Fold these 3 entries.
Entry 1:
Amino acid sequence: MRDQSAPPLLLASTSPQRRAILAQLRIPFEVVEPDYVEEPGPDALEHAAGKARSVDGDGRAVLGVDTVVVCGGELIGKPADEAEAARMLETLAGRTHEVVSGLCLRTADWEELHTETTEVTFRPLVAREVAHYVASGEWEGRAGAYAIQGLGGSLVERIEGDYLNVVGLPGALLVRLLATRFAGAYGFG
């Protein structure tokens, strides 16, 4: 049972997926938009730390997360339009890619920096399936041009690792950190 006096984490993100995961795990939180300009690049840990460090926790723990998709050593970002989304999905079709999240959990006294990698394998896709998914619009604003928690789940053959990491927040990693740093306060450890 969670200590009712545990202060909510400050989530340095406006991501609806991250909010949904924290709510699912019943971790109390408040959203604070980070004052951090994210430059395109593969360093999810650097971006997570930048987001968390840009928020004044005022004595509370701050959580920053960033997620990237990498396939064959190539960074697969967020598509700008339908054509780019289709190209990304065609690149991922029939292949295994990595979803890498950087996580920064910090207070004024300490900082935890970690990464979590989940391998996702797409099944082979035909052009009609790619077009159907792109027409759904679900790809918009998504690294790798898909959302595994929605229709994008139909593109996936298997995953190895933390499913929640693919959705947008490495849940197992966060729970381990909360159990260690705040034993019992959030219902873990």
Entry 2:
Amino acid sequence: MARVLRQGGLGTLLIDLLTPGEEREDILTARLRFDIGLLTERVVGASDWLAQNPLTASLRVGYFGASTGAAGVLAAAAERPAAVGAVVSRGGRPDLAIPVLPRVKAPTLLIVGGHDYPVIEMNRLHTEKKLEIVPGATHLFEEEGALEQVARLAREWFTRHLIPLRPSRPA
């Protein structure tokens, strides 16, 4: 995913939203992956760090989240509307962020596998955003070429909404 985004001229920052200890706990309880407040807090913290870092402060930020992490990035986009230029959700659960969705101002692309019927319906609830369905893909996009298609869709969305057009030179 990062390689394809970088090919589009985008910088990437991979964030594990759970610490290793929390991940071990979550494997046993599945509790923390649904703690949207915690996930949102982690994404907002990373955004604030980027905004304060002189190397990244002038860049537009895009969020990419998968599954329940997508609810976290949507909620973070609602919390920092001026800081977020675009959002991409892969197999996401926008239903877990319903209370804050009206506050998401960033252009949002929802990508869902064509065979992930429950998640398709969860994403159709939010028709004000763009929905892309990857034919033949399931929830984890493990089918051959499915993740590559997600990466291309994300790259196109982010480059369209995050990278400013270069002004043309006067003739």
Entry 3:
Amino acid sequence: MTALSDAKNFIHALQAGESTSAANHAQKLSADIHRVNQVLSIPPLKQVISVAKLDFTPIENELRTLIHNAPVLAGVDGPKKYLVAFQNSAEARGTGGLIGAFAIIEFDHGNLKVLKTGSNAVLKSLNEIPIPMPSEYTSLYRSDPAIWQNSNLSPHFPYGAQIWMELWRLQSGEKLDGVIAVDPTALSYLLKSTGPITLANGESITADNVVQKTLKDAYKRYEKDNDARKQYLVDIMNATFARFTSMQFSKIGLAKQVVPVLLQNRLLIYSSDESTQDALSLTKLGGTMNLGANNEYRAVILNIDASKLDYYLDRAISVKTLECGVNAKTQVSIKVTNQVTHPEQLSAYVLTRADKTKPADHVTGQHRFKVFIYGPNGSTLVSASRSSVAGPAGGVGSERTRPILVSDVDLSPQQSEVITVIFSAGSGPVTFIDQPLVRASTLKIDDRCKVANK
């Protein structure tokens, strides 16, 4: 009961604007969570809570970080305004998908208010990135991130968040306190706690159909009216916000769904408060490519033909250590498959080929994208190969001390490509950060060095 009491006192302090009291109760509640998780990690209990889907141990770090920083994030000392970016994962970007719809929300003493919602149609882009960026960044992405839909090309979420915030300031004159990014898959989990939402036309949007309706069906339904399609997304967003602002959801149900949302990197938060951002950057919530020693790998898809065919893209990823010790080497392979089966049934908008160098003989449903494969901080790219190319596998770049292979891929329906890269160095156990797209990657990690060092 201590944890429950501390939780109630914490929420009361937030709503009362008592920052010192809120901070003290945050400390107590964080300690409660850690203590409860230790008890629940006992095998018999762990099995029971796993069956009940109440195992929060995988996201303990994220939960404790949110609690410690809630007084700042929730506006205890004054209202905080955030851009909520709804990422369309049918068109891949580094942090997930391009921004399709958005909201400006405010937290004031823990209370949520929705100030504005809209689609990307009202967002005004620039010709040049509005904030200074590292030279390696501009080498990789040029000035493309000056466009709202391209601001999150990099998988390092703070870059995209900072650009979006400045674009919004220049457009509206309003300075924001941070950015929150989610996607339709995250929304599907949240709808499990609210139950179905009903639109003005009587249509029911559920946890089971929201991804397909927004990222597939809507393109056919509104084939001749793209503005109506975008408004449809905004309507779904508004109906969902209405449920949460009116507290029409199951608190236990919501808590259960937070686990997969965080583990799949489908909720990202950036804060302009320096200490809060430092804390977020050490968790999955930050979406950060940190600069410390690691053995972390990524495979990132960037859509370059402006199609919505990433809805049909499968990814199978293998990470395997080849050598340990001072000559450590790790191999990363990704197999990408275009799973389109009936391209003639898709709308022209979904099938868009806006890339200027598209092949003259390309077929309907053919999809072009880039694959960025990242090695660990300070590592070296040793070799790379592609299953369909005898020569160079792609170009080489770097971002935040990590070497990258960049491969340009163009796949016909049902066609696959395998790209394999070997990196040297890397410190600690092998980890992989998955890009949150419509179809989750299948991932296999064979860390022989971890086994050898036990």
